[in-house]
Write a structure and sequence with these properties.
The structure is a homodimer.
Chain A lengths: L20 E4 L4 H13 L12 E5 L6 H7 L3 H15 L4 E3 L9 H7 L3 E3 L1 H13 L8 E4 L2 H5 L13 H22 L6 H13 L5 E4 L2 H5 L10 E2 L1 H19 L9
Parallel strand pairs in A: 1-2, 1-3, 3-4, 5-6, 6-7
Helix pairs in contact in A: 1-10, 5-10, 7-8
Chain lengths: 262, 262
């Protein structure tokens, strides 16, 4: 369970309402839409008015995260912070970033913000431990993601998992196929991307892992019902649930602010 | 072709970038996510950085539009205007509202804004005329939507269409089934909603209309590939395309601002 104790005043959001969720979008744009879809689908709202309020700032000119990581540049961090600060100033009560790779800078982002960063990677790790009764590093896991998140694993380092020599040889192909799918999603070339993702997952499954983690939100954007499979971990689902939980917890802590005032 | 000539300065958006699209969301939340998905899917962007920038303000406490229309209240108009003005002040260069029923107040909204309102109903009418070579009122059309948009038709008045007595008798059932589907989508009760929508569409098709218009964006949120069918008009698709066209046109008119500066 994430700790939402670090709170600002729950009121004084935009238009005198409760502080909404702030979403740093555009990494990429389809993944942002998918996250907002999950936020709506999973909110258990009975009517429009009960859904989680948000401001999504999607200025997608943020430098390529993988390129920056590979060049040792922190240009994306500064651009992500600019956007997160903008949302904070706009009156948001917490920030969510539906991009796994951006979480490589999670400590810096958390430190720079005065409101809660709802940390997708931390929440996903907690959810795995809770459901499996074991920490992620004690499970045989394969993470599929960008080249940056493979170079600097967010969830698990593949070589630690004892899949053996045969796996390490195949991993390169799995990784390059995954990067190709991510590029296809970012460029709207979606026709075969779902089929290609299924092929990569079949290839990963042949090594009988406990978990396959979709550690790039572009994969989540095309994952369909894959997250229902027992061995698939789709972090963006956990992020959406945690954001809904945050919103409900804020309401409970200030019952007179349970409904928006407008 | 919509006229995007009424422009403010294209720069001076948030964080010194080109003015992004402003989206008044939350009517409902799933429809907002669907609109943003279409904006991403149809943008012909080659990479993250080329997608249409936007700020989505989704404070869903806006009063029920259908109830207000039926009570003669304009409470939703004032709340929609508050949000649109907030987006304008935040530096947005145009406003989109992915909710058909909200367009019952389109004149008032247009008049109150200093930036362009990308009018979903107007764009859809234009798209129908362009593709069919006839104005919508010269086509046999059935619009499926909220009780308000049936009471005050946005696109077409069913009795004008000459479907005959049998149709008018069946229309009440089609309407009440549609309202039930919309309520299901708003409350996250999505399991049967797509099947129920298909049943309503089959029923409407039995009267051999030229067009069936999904005149509530909640229907668009669950329409899947229905928009590919020749007789189905899905206005949210036209809104997304018009927003992309607006963004491209703004870039062409200020070539030195074609890429975001950050």
């Amino acid at each position: 369970m994430i700790d939402f104790s670090r709170r600002n005043s729950p009121s004084s959001g935009p238009l005198g309402q409760r502080k909404p969720l702030g979403v740093v979008g555009g990494m990429g744009s389809l993944a942002t839409a998918k996250f907002l879809e999950l936020l709506a689908r999973n909110s258990r709202a009975k009517r429009d008015q009960d859904h989680v309020p948000f401001i999504a700032l999607s200025l997608p000119s943020i430098s390529d995260r993988s390129q920056a990581i590979s060049n040792g540049s922190d240009a994306p961090l500064l651009q992500i912070l600019e956007r997160a600060h903008w949302l904070e100033k706009a009156g948001c009560g917490a920030i969510a970033i539906p991009c796994n790779t951006a979480h490589l800078w999670v400590s810096e982002i958390k430190q720079a913000l005065s409101v809660e960063l709802i940390n997708m990677v931390e929440i996903t790790r907690q959810a795995i431990s809770a459901s499996r009764g074991r920490e992620i590093h004690n499970l045989r896991s394969i993470a599929l993601g960008t080249s940056a998140s493979m170079q600097h694993p967010l969830y698990v380092r593949p070589s630690e998992n004892g899949f053996g020599k045969d796996f390490i040889q195949n991993l390169k192909q799995i990784q390059s196929d995954t990067v190709k799918i991510i590029d296809d999603v970012k460029s709207g070339n979606l026709n075969d991307s779902q089929t290609n993702l299924m092929r990569v997952i079949r290839s990963a499954r042949s090594f009988d892992p406990d978990l396959i983690i979709l550690s790039c939100s572009e994969l989540s954007a095309i994952s369909g019902d894959l997250g229902d499979d027992n061995d698939i971990i789709d972090p963006i689902h956990f992020l959406a649930s945690a954001c809904i939980e945050w919103w409900m917890a804020e309401g409970r802590s200030s019952p007179n602010l349970m409904t928006n005032r407008s």
